[in-house]
Design brief:
Shape: globular
Strand content: under 5%
Mean pLDDT: 85
Largest sheet: 4 strands, mixed
Structural class: mainly alpha
Helix content: 55-70%
Radius of gyration: 27 Å
Distance between the termini: 27 Å
Length: 765
């Protein structure tokens, strides 16, 4: 008679689970309250905007239609609004606000007339929106400024040249450019009109623009100071606690001897062998992404030229950057999917029949999504289609059409199903709080929180759309991918026998607690100036400062782990096969602390973000964090699996070594020779002369900036030639010279990677 298998007990005390659940529930409860306030207190979109005489200037439909024009033409990947978007074109909120303020002041008496300047400030700050009728009243001068700027933007976007990095005649329909101007005008109104009963605008006085009286608010300074206090106090308390108590217990493996198995001795399942194709696709997408990144950066060195080629005619800046950003997510995600498929049989100890065919089906579906979405973005930006389903949806990081977005969400869910198919027998024998279940939970969170991006709709209020978009940009990437990252790395360390399962589980729960304490509510640090209420800035600043605390802790603990790893490698009677994979994981820790921690905290302070948002300092943080953390991790996972997929005689330690040093040195060159100094120059320009000046093409194509762009070229060459190409070679060998398939069809033999001499604290999975 069949009996229910007995579950293994929880390896830790229940307090770890309780603490993790309480912290996560608290974070999402507060985030829910902030979502409610975003819907109730964001900058309103007037139904009608009229002159004092009642003449119609534009309608709510014009604003939303203009938002659609902005998105589907890829202008968020060229310039920005409310500071969010790309960095070659202007921020159109700041651009419209400056140009309209100058026009109004000139109409009222000119720059030399003090009364005209004071009247301009008063007219822009006075909130003449009537909620009961949905009517906004512009002064005559503001209405005339709108007509003047509608002509200006039509001339700009319909110009039959590539002089600004856009395709010739990007938007030629006068009605569309007028609607686009209405959208810009609404964002500028929200940036200058004071909230009812308060002395600051809907955007917390962003952008800094003295011509309309916009300057830093008291709340901005106060919460910047409190953020610093939270950071210093939190790090001090954490280091004191971990200095006093050995929570993690790295040292429980010091008395054991680990003998690493040679890669040729490890039997692979059919689905694990299928992962070779995933990694090859990953490497190809990686190569395309970095080539596009070099092209987008070159626009600042030669705006209308690419070594003699008029690149913008075929590949305008906004299309190149759209593909660059999308591919950065897709190639990393491909590696993560493959790593999950590769590790699942090792966690479960077996693999069901036919699993590899399902894996191949997932890869085919992924290829359809990748190339279908890229084609749709090309067609949308070139004006061949206006469909948000199959064309260009236009949100930064969510540019792909909604059809492809839905398909990708379903593909991620299908991937979770593949993992569950392998894990379900093991899950029946495990406590729901142990590592196999945590592995499954973390995988399930990936499609769940990516699908939240479907709430960001091109035809809805831009502030609310941005709110849901950052659930993907921040929560999905910086929290739940981080959690899945921790699970995969922890399992690799357990399977290698370097740490015990109990220690790895402590790290996982600690990661959940620390990241949830800051990361969930810290999502709001993206929305300081997007039209949300001031509490989004207050809580976002305070809790995003706490995000640096776990990064500091993990960096400190990494040295203890590395010392232990070196000791184990020295004791082993067989060579350690994963030197470069582990070194890539070490680089993940370095870039996590520098890119996400230091560079992230630098721009998250409200008073700094006020002047730098949408400058190269934002890109500096993004590149160091995205490539430095998730990119390096994706490569580490690929090398870990490829070490077993590539036959011993075909493996090249030299290629792995070259890739490691080239990717890290190339990224460091990119950051320190280009993005960081350029960001500092822009920050200085914004504080000294104005944010508008810091975002203009005249500044971004100046001699100083052009020199910085040319200085970046050697780093890009090292990154691509020395970093990506050797990785592509290893991935190709994984497909071309895969290890032969195993003849037996029984359970996966264990242990898979190591032989541990001595009695471990807990059985290895």
């Amino acid at each position: 008679m069949d009996t229910e298998p007995q579950r293994r007990g929880f390896l830790l005390s229940k307090g770890w689970v309780q603490a993790a659940l309480l912290v996560m529930l608290f974070g999402f409860f507060v985030l829910g309250l902030l979502a409610y306030s975003a819907y109730t207190d964001s900058a309103p979109i007037p139904q009608r905007t009229v002159t004092p005489e009642g003449r119609l200037v534009f309608t709510q439909e014009d604003i939303l239609a203009g938002q659609g024009v902005f998105l589907r033409n890829g202008l968020m990947q060229y310039g920005s609004v409310f500071g969010h978007g790309a960095y070659l074109g202007p921020d159109y909120t700041a651009d419209y606000l400056r140009r309209s303020a100058l026009f109004v002041r000139e109409r009222l008496g000119g720059e030399e007339d003090a009364a005209a300047s004071a009247r301009t400030v008063k007219d822009f700050q006075e909130n003449r929106y009537e909620p009961s009728t949905g009517t906004l009243v512009f002064t005559r001068e503001q209405a005339d400024a709108f007509e003047h700027l509608a002509a200006h933007y039509h001339a700009t976007f319909s110009a039959p040249s590539t002089a600004q990095g856009l395709r010739p005649g990007a938007i030629t329909d006068p009605q569309e450019t007028r609607q686009l101007t209405a959208f810009f005008a609404w964002t500028a109104w929200a940036a200058s009109a004071r909230r009812p009963g308060l002395d600051y605008s809907y955007t917390n006085n962003w952008p800094p623009e003295p011509r309309v009286g916009n300057g830093p608010t008291g709340a901005m300074v106060v919460w910047s100071v409190l953020s610093l206090i939270a950071l210093l106090g939190g790090i001090g308390l954490l280091l004191a606690a971990f200095g006093r108590w050995n929570f993690l217990g790295w040292h429980d493996r010091e008395q054991q001897t680990v003998s690493f198995r040679r890669p040729g001795e490890v039997t692979l399942t059919p689905s694990q062998r299928a992962c070779a194709w995933f990694f090859l696709v990953m490497a190809v997408l990686f190569l395309l992404q970095v080539l596009l990144g070099g092209a987008t950066q070159h626009y600042r060195a030669e705006l209308a030229d690419f070594f003699g080629l008029n690149l913008a005619a075929l590949l305008p800046f906004n299309l190149a950057r759209t593909w660059h950003v999308q591919l950065s997510i897709l190639w990393v995600a491909t590696s993560f999917l493959a790593a999950g498929i590769f590790l699942a049989p090792m966690v479960a100890g077996h693999e069901p029949r036919g699993q590899h065919w399902l894996a191949y089906g997932l890869l085919a579906a992924l290829a359809v999504v990748v190339f279908g979405s890229l084609a749709g973005e090309f067609a949308g930006i070139h004006g061949w289609t206006s469909s948000v389903w199959f064309g260009n949806q236009g949100f930064e990081y969510l540019d792909l059409g909604r059809f492809w977005q839905v398909l990708l969400s379903l593909g991620l869910l299908f991937w979770v199903g593949l993992l569950f198919r392998v894990l379900r027998r093991r899950l029946r024998t495990e406590h729901p709080g142990n590592m196999p279940w945590m592995f499954f939970y973390a995988a399930l969170a990936i499609p769940a929180f990516y699908a939240v991006g479907l709430l960001a709709r091109p035809d809805s209020h831009f502030t609310l759309t941005d709110f849901w978009r950052f659930w993907v940009v921040h929560l999905w990437v910086e929290d739940f991918l981080e959690l899945f990252t921790t699970l995969m790395v922890a399992y690799i360390f357990v399977l290698l026998g370097v740490v015990s399962e109990r220690v790895a589980l402590r790290v996982i729960y600690l990661d959940i607690i620390l990241y949830s304490a800051g990361g969930v509510i810290g999502t709001m640090h993206h929305l300081y100036f997007s039209g949300t209420p001031v509490e989004h800035m207050a809580l976002g600043a305070f809790f995003s400062a706490a995000e640096v605390i776990p990064l500091t802790f993990l960096t400190v603990e990494a040295w203890s782990f590395l010392r232990l790893g070196r000791e184990q490698e020295a004791k082993s009677r067989t060579p350690f096969p994963h030197r470069w994979s582990i070194l890539f994981l070490v680089s993940v820790g370095f870039w996590n602390f520098l890119g996400a921690g230091i560079f992230g905290f630098l721009i998250n302070l409200p008073i700094v973000s006020y002047y730098e948002i949408g400058t190269a300092l934002t890109a500096n943080h993004g590149h160091a964090a995205m490539m430095g953390v998730y990119g390096m991790l994706a490569v580490a996972l690929a090398l870990f699996a490829l070490r077993y997929l590539v036959p011993e005689e075909r493996w090249s330690e030299r290629a792995a070594k070259l890739s490691f040093w080239s990717l890290n040195l190339g990224l460091a060159w990119m950051v320190f020779a280009n993005l960081f100094p350029l960001g500092v120059l822009q920050l200085h320009e914004a504080v000294t002369h104005g944010y508008y000046e810091a975002r203009q093409l005249d500044f971004l194509t100046s001699d100083r900036v052009e020199l910085l762009e040319w200085m970046r070229l050697p780093g890009d060459a090292v990154f691509i030639v020395g970093g990506v190409l050797p990785l592509l070679l290893l991935c190709w060998r994984g497909v071309r010279h895969r290890v032969p398939a195993a003849e037996h069809t029984g359970p996966v033999p264990a242990p898979l990677f190591t032989r541990v001499e001595g009695v471990p604290e807990q059985p290895q999975p």
